[in-house]
Amino acid sequence: MSSLVRKIVAGVIVIALGVVGGPWVYINLIKDDAPDALTLEASSTTVAVATDITEAPSTRDVEGEWVATSESVVGYRVKEILFGQSTEGVGRTNAVTGSLVIADSTVTSANFSVDMGTLTSDSDRRDRQVSGRILDVASFPTATFELTEPIVLTPAALDGAELSVTSAGTLTLRGVTKQVSIPLVAKLVDGKVSVNGSLEIVFAEWSIPDPSISAIVVEDRGLLEFLIVFSR
Fold first, then answer.
1. Residue 84: φ, ψ to 5°
2. DSSP E strand stretches across the chain
3. Based on CB atoms within 10 Å of each CB, which residue in 37, 107, 128, 163 is the most buried?
4. Other CB atoms within 10 A of residue 84 CB
5. Do 87 and 20 belong together in one domain?
6. SS3 for 143?
7. How far is CA 75 from CA 87, 128, 136, 151, in A?
8. Both 57 and 42 in a single domain?
9. Could you tell me if 63 and 10 lie in one domain?
10. What is the pLDDT of residue 142?
11. Pair (135, 23) in one structural domain
12. Domain range holding 3?
């Protein structure tokens, strides 16, 4: 084999290794792991539990309006294939506003709004795609959710236990509004109401174009994740 041929073959091998090995090295050795799913934090104080069977938890301290705080987080999670290597794309924001109202041991209303233009991930390139052609935040700057059915709080929930419930409401995303049911977990934690949940979003059902580009293949659906923290 001539010297020129050997160089050409070696060059092809180097390029092939770069195409296959480069993404593996980036994903497994360089890229940070995707953040864990959002979950409720454990309370740092002990919740008193009624010991007398006739003693019922008081609603006095939870009645009224609660407002979303800067501790709130909303984001997305999608599965990606980069040159055959599996990874996840996760973008999040704290730019969340909203409130909920509690009356007679019931959440009578709740809503939140998200500034979609503030979503950020570990990739500027991904962020430009998300805010541009994927979510078109110039035309649809916010996503909103509004509760349409009241949620009854159990005595245990009023006493600090986690409450698992499916909420019904209207979600507006990229200009599309749909009735949705979202399983969530809520808890009164250290004087704050934390609400955690996620919803699968099939992109085509929300007029979201295929996020895939060139060698990055994205599944046809992702998760909308949230942890909304409300305080008085």
1. 85, -5
2. 64-68, 73-82, 85-93, 96-103, 106-115, 142-147, 151-152, 163-173, 176-189, 192-202, 216-218, 221-231
3. 107
4. 11
5. no
6. strand
7. 17, 15, 16, 24
8. yes
9. no
10. 98
11. no
12. 1-30
Contact assessment for residue 117 and residue 131, using Cβ atoms and an 8 Å cutoff: yes
Statement to judge: residues 172 and 86 lie in one domain:
yes
Residue 206 CA, chain-centre distance (Å), reads 16
HEC sequence for 26-56: HHHHHCCCCCCCCCCCCCCCCCCCCCCCCCC
Tens digit of each residue's pLDDT (9 = 90 or more) over 119-163: 999 999 999 999 999 999 999 999 999 999 999 999 999 999 999
Q: Same structural domain for residues 162 and 145?
A: yes
Per residue in 36-49, pLDDT tens?
Answer: 999 997 544 333 33
Do 53 and 167 share a structural domain?
yes
d(CA 127, CA 117): 9
Rg (CA), the chain: 23
Domain count, the chain: 2
